Amino acid sequence: MSDTELIMKPFGRKAHSFIMRPPQEDKRYTVLVGSVRSSKTFALDAKTIVHLSRYPLPPNAKRLMLGTTKQTLYRNVLIDLFSIVGKANYSYNQSTGELFLFGKQWFCLGAKDEASYRQILGMTVGISVGDEVVEYPKSFLAQLFMRMSPAGARFYGSTNPSNPYCYLKSEVIDNKEFAPDLEVINFRLDDNPNIDARTKAAIVASQTGTYRLRYILGEWVLQEGAVYKDAWDPEENTCTNKTMPIGLKGTGGYVDRWYAVDPGVDHPQATYEFYDDGTTVYVTGEDVWDSKITGRYRTDGQYADALEKFMDGRKWQVLVPPEAASYRAELESRGFWVTAADHAVSEGIHTVSTLLQTRRLIVNRDECPRLARRIPEYSWDDKAARAGNEEPKKINDDEVDALRYGVHGKIPPWRVASA
Fold this sequence. Notes:
This protein is α/β, with parallel strands linked by helices.
């Protein structure tokens, strides 16, 4: 059986109807909304292959493929797309984001922050295909829609439901002025014929609280209160030095070991040690330097010294957010294996929440007392949420941010989904 045969599985009726319908018969904006694993993204892949790469555009009109970052776009969309079409039918420059698919040029872009809109200034956009479009800032989507000036321009986006006050929901989906040109197709788990009853039950069980309402039932609801309130159990998600698995840190006890850092200057710098036995991730060590308590600031060099000591003189992989450029440079100059952490907030929180809920993320509370204390305290910013910006409060978040950096992007999506 070929790789394509493994990937190309039957479509549900809803997805099949959307895929096979010519773009000329689609509305200007089409948004696929609904449950996780309901085939939304796969339907967009298939639509792109069947129609969108061949859809005629004016010579100056561009084709765009969008994600929150180029990294998440590659992971969530492009890998499967490339597997289906085969190496002979595409070429992709991961650095520039330029893609040729069946001989047609596409530009792959990330839309992670308010500055992202600058990437499309001056462009004429004929086709845009977006993954997790609810995460795009208003400035980017608004600019994109203005750039869709050619007759017959089309926008296709997939997303799970999110904050009902966000731009996509409140000013696009619920906006009567968009209604004549907008189609919203709602997907549920039952729309994917490739998920058996046992797998479906496991997916449903992995989501609680707001995440169940959004990712299973497809409802647009606010995140309120503690971020991990429905996932964190202070007994089930922790261990002690006595109850930690015997031999975890020994030869054959783990399949991977790494570290993650939330760098700090005027706030604590938090570093955590992770061990992965292939099923469960254990947070086994904590090193936090709080300059406000100590009354002393550390240089990048001093932080690097402390990290090497924390690693017992070894240089294991360390995940550091990309914006901490000087600290990363210091570590790299010393021979550390440094990887840019995936710092997507909402996606990262969902990854951590799912692993906590399924008890595949365990914190040693003897060795990581600050983290064990911070997790249940970590809360959503209610004021920001009602302004359409879903984000946690920036209070005592250094430890939980480091936890997110150490898990999201490191643990592959298939494993999170099957936890």
